[in-house]
Write a structure and sequence with these properties.
Elements (H helix, E strand, L loop, with lengths): L1 H6 L6 E4 L5 H12 L4 E2 L5 H14 L10 E2 L8 H14 L3 E6 L20 H21 L6 E5 L9 H4 L29 H25 L5 E6 L20 H14 L6 H13 L7 E11 L2 E6 L9 H22 L1
Parallel strand pairs: 1-2, 1-4, 2-3, 4-5, 5-6, 6-7
Antiparallel strand pairs: 7-8
Length: 343
């Protein structure tokens, strides 16, 4: 990886995107590459890395040399050891990161039993929140080298029990974060709810909003006034077998396909992967999103086939700054041993 980074050294920094091997992240990466950006696109294994690079080569505009624009290191967000090793190499390179996009997300709704990460944390929480916070803590020095850093976090309206997507099923609620106590491998963040994969996802999206709020507060207290943007892309269901719902489809393929048919083709309340990727790109490139501070934008349905993307308020729980601080501290305790190991 070090040799790759040296090969693409340039006066501008990198844009770092998690979850860029498919879906919204891939669409945004392709758009950014075609616009001249240089990218770091971590993948969970070497096979995914090679596949991503080949897909980009096949779809980029003619004349763009991917070897001068893209690094695709192995970094598995479900494994703290993998994050540690990959970020060590990145830190050694000393390269600047201009834009940090935390886009990777996992959902396996339909499963009756929790899946676990390499360190035995519930997998949705581990990938969607824990891994991202540890990643940010590791590479923040590279982001703060930038003259105009920006952080973008892909959240979801399902974090909000009052929003249409958050009303169905068990609502997001983190309680007092008892599931994150040290030495406790709880399947749910609140520590007492019976495992529910749909609620686990909603809770992880609530964590994304709280994390964004606390990240900006901590940066501001250190004198860094930068944009920290959380956004909700809307319900994105592609027509192929890839994309965000590929894990959930394993547990109830008929139900998932019927759901997709109704919301995408009958009700017309979904967003396309291409359009969502364009929105994510705009959060990186457009001056209107460069204002320092925390902000939350949502791609909301206003009528069938019509959406509006604008700034909105998160849920009441997502605005609980005391809870945001507590979540950061408890999450830090879960990966503290890996920081100590590196030191």
């Amino acid at each position: 990886m070090e040799e790759s980074i040296k090969k693409v050294k340039h006066e501008n920094g990198f844009t770092f995107i998690t979850g860029a091997s498919s879906g919204i992240g891939y669409a945004a990466a392709l758009n950014l590459l075609n616009s001249g950006y240089r990218l770091i696109l971590p993948c969970r294994n070497s096979l995914a890395s090679k596949r991503l690079l080949q897909n980009l080569k096949n779809n980029l505009l003619k004349g763009i040399d991917i070897s001068e624009r893209v690094i695709a290191p192995v970094l598995d967000l479900s494994d703290l050891n993998s994050i540690l090793k990959s970020t060590n190499r990145l830190l050694q390179s000393g390269e600047t990161i201009d834009n940090l996009i935390l886009n990777a997300g996992l959902q396996y709704t339909g499963s009756k039993e929790p899946r676990l990460s390499s360190q035995n944390y519930e997998l949705t929480f581990a990938v969607n929140h824990l891994g991202h916070q540890y990643l940010v803590e590791r590479i923040l020095p590279l982001l703060l080298k930038s003259k105009s850093p920006r952080v973008i976090i892909t959240a979801s309206e399902v974090h909000n029990p009052e929003a249409p997507g958050g009303k169905f099923g068990k609502p997001a609620c983190l309680g007092k974060l008892q599931g994150l106590e040290e030495g406790k491998a709880a399947s749910m963040i609140d520590g007492f709810s019976k495992f529910n994969a749909d609620k686990a996802y909603k809770d992880s999206k609530l964590c994304n909003l709280l994390f964004a709020q606390e990240l900006y507060r901590r940066l501001e207290s250190r004198g860094f006034h930068i944009p920290v943007i959380a956004w909700a892309p809307g319900l994105v269901i592609p027509r192929n077998s890839h994309g965000f719902f590929r894990h959930s489809r394993k547990y109830n393929e008929f139900g998932q396909r019927l759901f997709a048919l109704i919301v995408r083709d009958v009700l017309q309340i979904t967003e396309t992967t291409v359009k969502a990727g364009e929105l994510l790109k705009s959060l990186v490139t457009e001056p209107e999103y460069s204002k320092p501070g925390f902000s939350y934008f949502s791609n909301k349905v206003i009528r069938p086939g019509k959406r509006i993307f604008n700034r909105t308020e998160p849920s009441a729980e997502a605005n609980d700054l005391q809870l945001a601080g507590l979540l950061w501290k408890k999450t830090f305790c879960l990966y503290r041993d890996y920081i100590n190991m590196e030191n």
